[in-house]
Amino acid sequence: MTRTIKLGLFGLALSAMATSTAGAQTAETEAVVEGPGVALGEGAVFHPAISVETGVVSNVFYEDGDRANNDPVASAIARVVAGFSIASQTHKLAEEETPAIENEGDEENPEEPPPPAKVDFRFGAQAILNGYLSSNDNVQDQTDVGVGVNGDVTFLPQGDFSVRLADEFIRDARPHNFESTGNLNRDYNHFMAGGTLQPQGRTISVGARYENTIDRFESDEADFANRLQHLIGLRGEWRLYPYTKFFADASYGFFDTLGDPSMQVKSKSNPLRLQVGVGTALTEVTTLRGYIGYANGFYDQGTNFSNVIGGAEFGYRYTQYGRFRIIADYNFRDSLQANFYRDYALLAFLDQQFGLFVFSADGGVRLRKYESVLGNVGGDTSRDDVLLSGAARLAYLLRDWLAITARFEVTVDQTDYTYMAGGITDSPEYTRYEAYLGVSAAF
Amino acid sequence: MRNRRKLLTAALVLGAFGTVRAQSSGDQGTTLDVGASAGVEARIAPEEMSSRAGSLVGEMESIQSRLNALQQQARESRDIIKLNCVNDKLLQVKQLLNIADAARISLSESISTHNEGDRYHQYTVITVSSEKARSLRDEAEACIGEELVFNGRASIEVQAPDVPDDPTRTDPFALASFDIERPTYATPFL
Questions:
Q1: Which of A120, A169, A376, B165 is the most exposed place for a label (fewest CB within 10 A)?
Q2: Alpha helix locations (H) across B78-115?
């Protein structure tokens, strides 16, 4: 691998890190950065990585400041992200894109492709220390460690029948939405097991899968929102052309509260999704992904979702080193604090590289509606939010394994929803800015 | 048998530039009709012509060496058909080399005597002999067939558009969804 290509991959990895939707407190389990790694024998590569950054958070407790005693509290913050991954040499990240940098390899004598691997795997872990640098005790107590662990293994990835096992665990460290020493730390685990049948030389594949999700809050006061979800699904794919693939997916879920049934305050549901989609390259530099389908939540109680769902993504690589994407989407999800929420989303993403500078930005608006908000919330059963988000990130690649990073993020949640808490009418609105400067190293 | 083959080869070579000889022999004052290739060579300086002739003869000697090697290869393989085939080409090349050697000596004499017509004629003899020798070398290679058996590692060159962003790598569902729902702070707890 040449220096140039490594720089490109490094930049891409930074970009992948930057486009994560996870907040500052989240244990991100996506690949942060990834250099060539350290070979462990012939089949595996070890990738250690560490990032150190410092910055400012404008609103630690997500307050709206509409009352005298709930003004947003700002704080300096220091973050240390340490992680590693072990991957088979044939493993390619699911979201990994072809680097927009020319390979300077020896094209006259290309390397012989390796034989098909029998096992393709990747295991990784991250620990994120969020240290709040403030004289406010409530803010100091938010200092915590987020964790992310993930594994993904596919047996016989190029065989007629392949089996895939994947798991992702996240410990999300997050403050309350009011000033206190407590938190809303949360353990989230998603497991998937599936098999895919695709005879050699065929363009059609079919597969079945089982998914399990456990979403559990660590504090007793929030355990009413714990969830256990099972989902079974069938998937068919047809690669009509090298860069055109059709998808069909049907899934059915068994969603319930996790824990003591007597604590159940949220309706059971059996969400059904029937979807068809396509991913295609319209030209060499323009891509289109889209889907349409039908979804039904089948909630036992309260408002149900039953509607058409769909979305589309258009991507355009306007230069060799620059690309933007626009997404429009309409879908629904099971909610922590309601039966479900549905989003109209319009999002935009930009990635651009200028020499050794890697720049990315994104922004979007979501028109969100919650239905059957839980009764213990103390407000209406329906809630409408406008979520605005924006981010800009810049990395300067000092070496192929070392970069200086800077990022700025803003999140705005606007709603007319109010609720009663302790005899006080409060609004969940908030505006939050975050700015960071740091150094990332990946090997 | 051998004499008859020599005569046949000589007749072939002479036939190849018979027109040249007919147009140039005897009368030096007549127009030299040597065809297009000779016309191109007409402006060659004597020193340059002598040098090129030396190169061409040297190339023919290399061809002769190559055919000797092929002959030895055929002997080792004990394939009488291949051996006879190579022998036939080798014999012709040797005869062409003799002709070219003689023409080169004549070329030197013509240059020294400033005989322009004969100079070009001898050079043409060498050129045609060289071309014929190359042709015979290819035929001898075909006799053995080795060169056609292994031409290096097989490879397929596919002409395809360069699509840097593969839209088929991931499924198109849930384009805008969060991985996990963040608490949206509707309650003192969430």
A1: A376
A2: 80-112
The CA distance from A281 to A288, in Å, is 6
Q: Are B85 and B140 in contact (CB under 8 A)?
A: yes
How large is the average pLDDT for residues A322-341?
93
Q: Does domain A3-442 have CATH number 2.40.160?
A: yes
Q: Is residue B21 classed as helix, strand or coil in its secondary structure?
A: helix
DSSP A53-84: EEEEES-TT-----STT-----EEEEEEEEEE
| Residue B36, C-beta contacts closer than 8 angstroms, at least 6 positions apart | none
Nearest to A233 by CA among A248, A249, A254: A249
- Read off the tokens for B8: 């046949």
Strand runs labelled E in A242-356: 244-257, 272-281, 286-296, 306-319, 322-334, 338-354
Closest residue on chain B to A242 (Cα): B168
Instruction: Report the 10 Å Cβ neighbour count for B175.
Output: 22
Residues of B in contact with A23 (CB under 8 A): 182
Question: How many angstroms separate the Cα of A161 from the Cα of each of A17, A56, A156?
Answer: 32, 50, 7
What are the chain B neighbours of A423 within 8 Å (beta carbons)? none
DSSP B139-151: HHHHHH-HHHH--
Rounded to whole angstroms, how far apart are CA atoms B16 and B25? Answer: 15
Q: Dihedral through CA A380, CA A381, CA A382, CA A388, nearest 10?
A: 80
Residue A43: count other Cβ atoms within 10 Å of its Cβ.
16
Please report, for residues A174, B5, B7, B8, B97, the alpha-carbon distance to residue B1 in angstroms, rounded to integers and kept in the order given: 103, 6, 10, 11, 20
Enclosing H/E stretch for B129: helix B116-144
Hey, where are the domains in chain A? 3-442
Tokens 């400033």 belong to which residue? B114
Per-residue pLDDT of B53-70, as tens digits, reads 999 999 999 999 999 988
Query: Does B159 contact A at CB distance below 8 Å?
Result: no
Strands (E), A90-178: 119-133, 144-155, 161-172
| CA–CA distances in Å: residue A198 to residues A7, A241, A299, B4 | 35, 16, 36, 70
Query: How does pLDDT run across B18-53, given as a tens digit for each residue?
Result: 433 433 333 343 333 433 344 444 578 888 888 899
pLDDT in tens, A110-140: 555 556 678 889 999 999 999 999 998 888 8
- For the stretch A406-432, what's the b/e string if a residue is b when 16 or more beta carbons lie within 10 angstroms of its beta carbon? ebbbbbbbbbebbbeeeeeebbbbbbb
Q: Does B29 touch chain A (CB under 8 A)?
A: no
In angstroms, rounded to a whole number, what is the distance separating the alpha carbons of residues A110 and A112?
6
Which chain A residue lies closest to B187 (C-alpha atoms)? Answer: A377
Q: Which residues of A touch B163 (CB under 8 A)?
A: 242-243, 281, 284, 287
A126, two tokens: 């991250």
Burial profile B144-168: b = 16 or more Cβ within 10 angstroms, e = fewer = beeeeeeeeeeeeeeeeeebbbbbb
